[in-house]
Specification:
Largest sheet: 4 strands, mixed
Number of domains: 1
Helix content: under 10%
CATH architecture: Sandwich
Mean pLDDT: 85
Distance between the termini: 48 Å
Structural class: mainly beta
CATH class: Mainly Beta
CATH topology: Immunoglobulin-like
Low-confidence stretches: none
Radius of gyration: 23 Å
């Protein structure tokens, strides 16, 4: 993000000149990745809880998840404030999960694979 800086100069003729410049906002810490989330194996009829927030750094982050299980009975949700992912594993499946963290300074994401097996 950028900050708009304005400066008004007055001259001895009682007129003024206004200058504007867009400078990078160095006070904002955009999202970054500090840890890659590992692929995850789950046994059906269980719920997996993954703390995705541990993979990111940044100021005032909000989280989102994008997953498309082939078996629609399996669901993936995330708490936008805490970054906690819940995977309800009901039936055999495999799919990718993309986790994003964003704030006013940008967005970062990481991806991992989920495999749901019927039994151990």
């Amino acid at each position: 993000m950028y900050r708009l800086i304005t400066l008004t100069l007055s001259t001895f003729l009682a007129s003024s000149i206004t200058l504007a410049a867009a400078l990078p906002d160095t006070t904002c810490k955009g999202p970054g990745i500090v840890k890659i989330l590992s692929d995850f194996d789950i046994i059906a009829d269980n719920t997996a809880i993954i703390e995705a927030k541990n993979a990111f750094v940044g100021d005032a982050l909000s989280y989102s998840v994008d997953a498309n299980p082939l078996n629609k009975i399996n669901t993936v949700t995330i708490d936008a404030k805490t970054g906690t992912i819940h995977i309800q594993a009901a039936k055999r499946d495999h799919f990718d999960v993309k986790v994003s963290a964003k704030n006013k300074c940008g967005t970062a994401y990481t991806q991992f694979n989920v495999v749901i097996d019927e039994e151990e």
